[in-house]
Amino acid sequence: MKVDNAGVRQRPRVEGGREDEILDATVAVVADLGYDRLTMDAVATAAKASKATLYRRWSTKAELVVDAISRAKGCPMPEEVDTGSLRGDLISMACGAGGFTDELPMSVIAGLLTALHRDAELQQAFRERFLAPRQALTNKVYERAVERGEIAPDVDVDLLSVTLPAVIIHHAYILGVEPTDELILRVIDNVILPAARGSQVS
């Protein structure tokens, strides 16, 4: 077992395409059962792999799940976009693969919500390995909007950048309203863009 420069043990990868198959199976099991009910046995059965194979690569359930939702094909990273406008960028990211209308990612988040509140290890891994790279893409979108003058100087950009996901997640998991392109456009046009103008007179 290799050790990197930071002293973190690097567990051996699963050969060939089997790792992707296991990750995809894990995402599907999380979406179906939720994190609490997920077991290594359930994933092994879904992936048609031995439990020993899973433990050679992932020592805990949290490691497996976070790796799965971070890298599996069923839960892709949104692509970096630059349409030339804040509105266009937000629509492209939110409505495309890995966005809010992608059924699998939203169902996976639903399966993790309860566990995230009480499992510190899962919460930290989820924040660092799943949320952070996606937030980095969103930050670039808003940084470019600031440079283009689409966002007023008096606007709290950090708060603005999390408004769209906050509203969509509230609708999905509190109100039970399915995320749709129409809902995303309503939030962008009626909340994000007016807020971006700040106190400027349109």
TrEMBL record:
PROSITE patterns: HTH_TETR_1 (PS01081), HTH_TETR_2 (PS50977). Residues 16-76 form the HTH tetR-type domain. One of its GO terms (molecular function) is DNA-binding transcription factor activity. It holds the Pfam family TetR_N. It comes from the Bacteria. Signal peptide: none annotated. Transmembrane segments: none annotated. InterPro entries: DNA-bd_HTH_TetR-type_CS, Homeodomain-like_sf, HTH-type_TetR-like_transc_reg, HTH_TetR, Tet_transcr_reg_TetR-rel_C_sf, TetR_C. PANTHER family: HTH-TYPE TRANSCRIPTIONAL REGULATOR RUTR (PTHR30055), TETR-FAMILY TRANSCRIPTIONAL REGULATOR (PTHR30055:SF148). This is TetR family transcriptional regulator. It comes from Kribbella jiaozuonensis.
